[in-house]
Amino acid sequence: MEKQTATPFLNQGRDLISSNGCTHCHTIKRGDGTYILPDDDPPSLKHIADKTTREWIYAWIKDPQAYAGTATMPNYHLRDDDARDISAFVMAQSTPLQPPISPLQTDTKAAADPAAGTSLYGQSFCASCHAMQNAAGSLVGGNVGPELTGIGTKAKPEWLQDWVANPNHYDPQTMMPHYRFDAQQVATLVGFLQSKTEPDFIANVHLEPATPAQIEHGKRLVTENGCASCHEINGVKKPENFAPELTRIGSKPLSQLLFVEGVEHTLPGYVAGKVRNPRAFGPSLKMPQFNLTPQQVDAITTALLAQTDRAQTQPPAMRIASVQQTRYEPAGHAGQLMGDLRCLTCHTIDGHGGDMAPDLTWEGTAVQREWLTQFLKNPETLRPALIRRMPKFNLTDQEINTLADYMMTVYQTPQFERDSLPTSEFTPAAVEQGRQLFYSKFACQSCHIADYAKDKGYIGPALAGTGKRFNAAWVYHWLQDPQSLRPGTIEPNQHMTDDEARSLTAFLMSLNATGSKEATKK
């Protein structure tokens, strides 16, 4: 959804609507004619029996947050018998994955040292996307993928082996990259993940074999509760118009609302009450209970109240158009590699992708090929303050060259020529002048590191290796107007003169330290 300037609470509410998947069921049309789309990623259930057990499914649908506090799946407050029958149907509809998941490899053992799994998990930067509780009970990691605190209780060992080896096999649409781990690494990481268990979660679940009547009842409950709005389920079609459209909820007349005891007789009170506790408005209602804080309820209420008649009928000149994702996909063999590595999960290219990592639209203009190939072979730390890092994907030299050739050729800006500012033009005097500008007038060291021995700037990327990483023309044009090359960057426009930009470029291009090595020495 579009981000409105100076409206953080409204923006938060809209983000929550997307991240909690509200628009899997509700239709919400923006004022510019586009629709709000969910950005959660509910898994397909078509092969779920390959992944987990009926006991885990029963416990999960009874209370998702009991397994993972970060779970966005809502609580339907199911009776024991209903949860029993839904779990029976979910397992019954599951079909074996083709080609089938291989049996667990017993000839390759996980390393006896538990630290090996912890180390591989850390080296692969799994925590950039996944959260996991540490020894102190604190949740550490990202929220792109599911929480892994109890993954050893949830997932079957053979499924974990298949997933770690190549996640594309089980889910071709997954955002998880294919790491190309060897057999020993797969065994080590699977052993580590298997050790992350929550045995109490299913300890008291005891299910008898399902009867045909229970399976049929479970299917009916799945259909009635709209489970296929979010999940792919064999034999159940995605429902249409399952929940009311909310495009104009902010203009809903009070006379059309049914208030219950304890809910303020105002539109904001009604919306907040419905979001906070939907079943209070009637036990037969299908809307489930979401795990929201009071502040999150207020934010979602604010976003919904903004969906008014006026918002839908404003003249185009008065609207702020939302920024829509494009459908860009890289082409050819390089495109297949980038798809396999799920580059667009983290990076944006030509208006499509994630925002976890830098935009790569003009990467071929920005960087030097030799640096790019070395980075793809062994990614180094570029932003010292960030926990998230690009993982090592174990690419072959041929794959690296394929990616580098494609990026250097295709991802170029039309604004200027990549090699239009040779470093041979920079004099020692210009380098020294640039150094003075860096440390005095513009105080760049406040955010960046040019010298690991004395600089403390951890907000922006380290610049100690600029001369090896970037092209001079890119640095020069970036200094003159960062926003023109990467809209939305936090790098300020210092409104430099041409001479200042050239001198500062000369200084930055003189920095040839390898960041990771220098940081290690520090």
Could you describe the 3D structure shown?
It is built from 24 helices and four strands. It has helices spanning 8-19, 54-62, 64-67, 80-93, 114-123, 151-154, 157-165, 167-170, 183-194, 212-224, 267-276, 294-305, 309-313, 332-340, 343-346, 363-366, 369-377, 397-410, 428-441, 466-469, 472-480, 482-485, 498-509, 515-521; strands at 131-133, 139-141, 348-349, 352-353. The chain has a two-stranded antiparallel sheet. It has a two-stranded antiparallel sheet with strand order 3-4. The longest helix has 14 residues, at 80-93.
Class derived from helix and strand content: mainly alpha
Number of strands: 4
Helix content: 25-40%
Instruction: Order the strands across the largest sheet as they lie in space.
Output: 1-2
Secondary structure tally, helices: 24
Sheet with most strands? 2 strands, antiparallel
Stretches where pLDDT falls below 50 for ≥5 residues? 515-522
How would the global form be characterised?
A: globular
Report strand %: under 5%
Spell out the helices and strands N to C: HHHHHEEHHHHHHHHHHEEHHHHHHHHH
The CA-CA distance between the termini, in Å, is: 43 Å
Mean pLDDT across all residues, rounded? Answer: 92
